[in-house]
């Protein structure tokens, strides 16, 4: 087994500012927490942007460019920009920032799916911003859209056009078969960075059987041509990524996926979650990959070949 890549997803587009005072919202907060996460051991930083006034997810490349150069200047970590964006964003909006930044790595959801965030409404009596409750409720009737045509376009414009590689986000085993379809068509090239995702409403449940099944199917479809990673939502985050690592996976943590660093205890930063998973991995004799090692493992184009 090669060294374990720790990815950190800093803010995402699921949690809202009311849910945690530690969720980074402004460009300053995102940059600072990204730098701290890299110092703690994260070699990949998965990034969304938010409106600095309201905390609402935004695809605006001008907001991304307020923190991307600062992160690059202060760390050697691999920057991974979302192409999933957030609820209500068009494909062109979702691609605006990565096309401008030409990053080494981007996330790529491998299919359309229901994506339910509305159960979180029950946990809060009121919200800081008017948009938050409406945003969560709207997910009851929302489908995240990534058709075959959408995926082809992203692979063409970012992959072929910019030399960007992808973190293929697979929310169920059907997404693994979709990825295999694109591999058969030679529209993606190994090594594939496959992120198996568990515990989100609309995707695969966080059950051990599903974790092992995802690994078996990926092995069957991709053999030695992929590098596996595991992430899980909410309370499942640390137990599930630990099980993944024991079974040969890389890991992803961060406040995008869970706001906690223990039962009932909000994580005070993304770096706290990185330190927590690192404190579990290293006693298990699992070495953490550096950014340079991560670039070699994933065959990335290098940090000198971005435009931020």
UniProtKB/TrEMBL annotation:
Tree of life domain: Bacteria
Cofactor: Zn(2+)
InterPro entries on file: Aldolase_TIM (IPR013785), BKACE (IPR008567)
Keywords: Metal-binding, Transferase, Zinc
Protein name: 3-keto-5-aminohexanoate cleavage protein
Organism: Sphingobium fuliginis (strain ATCC 27551)
